Amino acid sequence: MKAECHTKSPERAVSPSRVDDDVLLDAARACVLDQGVRRTTLTDVARRAEVSRMTLYRRFPDVRSLLTALMTREFGQLLARVSGSVTGQNARARLVGGSVASVRAIVADPLMRTVLDRDGELVLPYVVQRLGSTQHIAEQFLLAQLAAGHEDGSVRMADPAAQARALLLVVQSFVLSHGPATVDVGAEALLAELAHVLDASLAP
């Protein structure tokens, strides 16, 4: 029998124009946390959000578009929180600190952990086939930090696009492999090594 996420009350019709996207995305988040990505349906989300299924379908025609919007929102908010709290004497220090803090925040985030732990195979296409929206958000953050580092002289001059892509690949590997990588190595010790790797590769 299929498990359903907890609901508050029977479905009721609401005009699509009156429903904020965050209401729908919050409902999707609750469903994913309850039962994982694969078992979440648009019907579950509509019921949780207390809107009609047609209201949800008009905004998000399928589960994939809904979950893409959810992950983009969650990752964007997480990155904004991290970037707003990072300090450093120069752009390189802020880039390294922000990258390490982002890994720490992502692997501790309940939604990100649920996706990786329960539905990790869904991430595979974004590793071997194409970059996703969250990766592009991360890359834009890295590009901005690299530009600042080139300007203040704290980051080695190179093609910014290539540097950002290389940094993205390194940092995301620490996110995706965090579980098995920390079975017999301390998480903070591993993050300290990530900081050394990034700092050494970026130094002029």
UniProtKB/TrEMBL annotation:
Keywords from the UniProt entry: DNA-binding
Keyword DNA-binding: yes
Keyword Transmembrane helix: no
Origin: domain of life: Bacteria
Alphabetical list of Pfam families matching this protein: TetR_N
Chain ranges of the HTH tetR-type domain: 18-78
Any one Gene Ontology molecular-function term assigned to this protein's record: transcription cis-regulatory region binding
Residue range(s) of DNA binding per entry: 41-60
Protein name (Swiss-Prot/TrEMBL): DNA-binding transcriptional regulator, AcrR family
